[in-house]
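Example complex used in Figure S2.
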Amino acid sequence: MKNKIVENFCGPYPEGHVFQDISSNPNYVFKNDSNFDQVMLSDIEGNTVYVNSFIECEHYVLGGWNYSPPKSFGEGLDLLMFSKLLIVVLIVTTIIKILGKLKEQIV
Amino acid sequence: MSNLKFSKTLNILLILIVLLLPWVPSFLDSEVEIQELTDELGFYETYTCQISYSEFQLKNIFTLYQDHYRINLNEYSEAPCYGKLTGVDRVGDIFYISIGLNPLLTLFLQSLFLFLVILLLKKDEKLLLSENSTYAISILISSVLITFGFYSQTRYYEKNFADLDFRFFETYQIIFAFVLFSSYILGYAFNSRSNNLVNYFPFLFLIIGVPFGLNLYIYFLVFIFFGVYKTLTSYKTLNKLLLFSIFIFVWITSVFEGNMFYLKPDKMIGLTSTVYSYESIIYWSLLLFLIVTGIFEYLDKVRQHINYITIKYSFYFVSIVVAILSYFNTEVQPLNAASQIYFGQNKASTRDLPKDIISNWRGYFPSAEQMGEFFSITILLFLSLKYLKNIKTKNFEYFPLSVSVVFLILSYNRAAIFLTIIFGILIYFKGNKNLVSKRNINIAIILFVLLLSFLYINNQIFSYSFTSTKVLSEAQNNIAFEQYSNSLLYLQENLNSNFLLKLVFGIFSTAAFYLNRSYLWGMFFARYSPTTKEFLFGTGPYNLSNLYNEVQVADTVSFLWPHSSFLQVLFYFGVLGVLLLIYLITKKIIYSIKNNNLHIGRYIFIFILINLFKSDSIMYFSTLFTTLFFYNSLKFEDFKIKN
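Predicted assembly (750 residues):
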């Protein structure tokens, strides 16, 4: 069964993925998956770990490494957000200009 | 009055904020304690994008003045990394301190900086263009076109953006938003201050305007907008665009017949296409049409306010500032980097001082050629006003003029130096007609003969049979893998049998020899391989990708541009384009001679034209604008001269 939290952190489930209960196997060694982009996970105390396969990621997320470190404004800044902000500024400025012109016409 | 003062103070304060904000430590930075920079670089490799540049600089003051620390601007950074250290590397003895930049944020920053600077000028009583629906539509269309420019050159741009994927439509929405915003603020600044602004056009040589990582000038945002506005409001211009579209169609058909080629823009960044594809041809063709239309529209509308005295002082001011920057940018690395970020240099200032008084030094400019041309124009404008219009020289003027003379010599642009002397003499005698007597003419002829004799005795004059074929022999010497270009094959087969070709090419080759262009123009012909259609109509403006890829030539020491705007025009617009341009220019010059015998603009325009024949400066927006400014001046009797 697909877990939403796992998907949020690790990306979509690979095709044919079968859940493995690794916690019951202390000798399990994680193998790197070249198709998987490395993901950084954090626990509640702010510790971080890098995982290199979906299985490893799923294991850690289900084990409590599913906290997103609080993002500061700067870290959260991305071009999409910034571009939306610019458009809002433009729209507001244009509306103010139009209203100003209307006011002039009325007076 | 006090309101005005407050507004200016506020403006200056905002400029300072824009200048400093991206670099200062802030609450966004990591809380790690910064270490002093030593040979052990582990700390700076670990904490990438977490330390603001100024924080690093304060901890490592010595990197400001010691020779072996260089700042490396890294455009391939995500937005949160802007102004932060993205690493420190060591290559040999040199430490490269990388600062994260993002091309779109640089566009935003540079536009905001220019916008605030322009707002310092007095507002015009009337707007240049009325802010109606056409105004809004024009800004939208020009922003769409510039965004299309990104789409047409994705291979170039995807290397410069870490956080954008050019396969997605969303990416273009983001770019469009940034372009639209910048167009809006710059459009407003130009539209409300145009009458004053035109007299400051020499500042284009200082505030170059290429946002780091983008292949465009921020001035495009304004002039394309003006061009679109003109096209939407004038049937004549719309018809011209429709006619021009036929040429665009012809150029596109050449792409379908050939391959797709790429070109690294190097120092020509901003005004050269990076790819030979039909999208890029459409983009660069429309861009050129609209920019030229926009500039002419702008110049026509503000012509009553153009004042040569203010322009002269602008040239003086820029001369001094670029001279200062040329020197300090070799020593102070952060200043060198800041010049690139805020003034948008297409190539960073040189980091070496001139080794000799004549050493082809380029200083702040992207090339020594352009540096020579700029300082020559400054000198010639002064001479024209002094001798043609009897404007008295003030004592302080000798300082910028001395600076101009020194920097002209440092550039060692021999053609510019020689032409400045010739034009200077011409202007002097034109202004002092009483000195032109038979006796003086005879003296001049004797001096000229003596000079020729001196050159001949010193083996500086070569036989015509040698010089007239020098370009051809250079082309033949530089073929590789038995690949002969069509132009080279044609010249080899027809040069001796066709008298007219022999005469024209012989003169051209001789001129090339004495201008030290035989090798460079020989390389051009080794590469230039047009079909008949391409020879007649060219392959489209500002697109040299196929010239440098179609035919392989012998290796060169470095990447060499054609070094001739004339040859570029031949390549872009074909022989018909060259003939049309010659016709238009000749017509304008003849008109201006009839109109005003002492026309200042004509002298400077002809000077620029001759220089362009042997330089690539038409690929710099500053030179393009200056050329169009003086070309457009030929239409009018002359501009105002008001102290």
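The interface with chain B takes residues 72-80, 82-84, 86-87, 89-90, 93-94, 97 of chain A (CB under 8 Å). The helical segments of chain A are 4-10, 54-62, 73-76, 79-106.
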